[in-house]
Amino acid sequence: MSRTDAPTPLPAPAPMPPRLLPLLRFPRPRVKRPLHVALTIALLAAGSSAAQDGSFQTVDSIRQAAEQALASPDAEVQASLDPALRMPPCAYPLQAQAISAVNVEVQCPQGWRLFVPVRVQRVQSVLVLTQAVAPGQAIPASALAVERRDAGRMAGVPLTELAQAEGQTLRRGGRVGQVITQADLVAAMVLKRGEPVTLVAGNAGFEVRMAGRALADAAQGQVVRVENLSSRRVLQGVVAAPGEVRVGR
Question: Is the pTM of this model over 0.70?
Answer without folding.
Answer: no
